[in-house]
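Now for a sample.
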Amino acid sequence: MPATSALRRGLAVIAALPLLTLAACGYGSEANDDGTAKVAAGAKKIDGLDSVKIGYFGNLTHGTALVGVDKGFFQKELGATKASYATFNAGPSEIEALNSKSIDIGWIGPSPSINGYVKSGGKSLKIIGGSASGGVKLVVNPDKVKSLKDVKGKKIATPQLGNTQDVAFLNWIADQGWKVDAQSGKGDVTVVRTDNKITPDAYKAGSIDGAWVPEPTASKLVAEGGKVLLDEASLWPDKKFVITNIIVRQDFLKEHPKAVEAVLKASVEANKWINANPDAAKAAANKQLEADSGKALKPEVLDPAWKSIQFTNDPLAATLNTEAEHAVTAGLLKKPDLNGIYDLTILNKVLKADGESPVDAAGLGTS
């Protein structure tokens, strides 16, 4: 196992990776020479903006964004305002991009959202919508781990110190009555912070005994002979918990509400299309993953991974609050003040116009 200092250096490198700006064509439109979707004749700019910069991860749990890019939903709603895109490897780098105004709106996990909000004193971002639930599993080497109690004493990977899955795994460890130092990852279980791209190779090499990871990494491990020992959804009421939500810079929200509304309209439309056309949506998400990374997922990975994710406009705010409490319990976060972290006003306006029920901020909304 690498030394803790080496792990931290590795995480710092991952967080500092440069952004990859992408352009995509979709919605049945022809492409311009630079690959961007052509804008419909007569379309107008929204709020006078030349572009809206949208960020997301190359994970299936960001399927709303992947499908929205591939099918052109964002560009359709933004009209003559160009939808531009950037992909990220980790939450801290996306929060940094948001704070530096390199992006305006982003798809991101709950822990980075909480950290970004708290570190800025509640001034940097707002959560403006939900995107996905589920898609996180504990996958283990079945030769070494036969049952949940066998996890004790083993080396289990999570994507990053303090990330959403890391917090969830540390909380689960505590629930078993085991002790682990959150910072070093040492204790009754050895928590190995490993980038999702590296985790399958680490598993094959035998340097880890399993991993608590999001899709598609979990299904990649299963394809390598791993066994799903626990689906995190089983630990939550109604088997639902936030894995991806939508954030926006507060100044952008204040200055360009029509642009935010256009992106949220596209998100709602993408989720509706995903849930009505699961096979086509799965293919669209995989197509965009290939465009972003140069490599599509194989069916034995894509199919089970996609099946385990629920796409929803509801941010599942109560579960975000619970996840924050887990981070506090693990010693990774001081008790945060999350009042006002949500502003669901525009989303609920969009949902009402679409005949859908409003969503709730669990008491953490903007007054």
Observations:
- The chain has a mean pLDDT of 89.
- The longest strand covers residues 125-134.
- The longest helix spans residues 257-276.
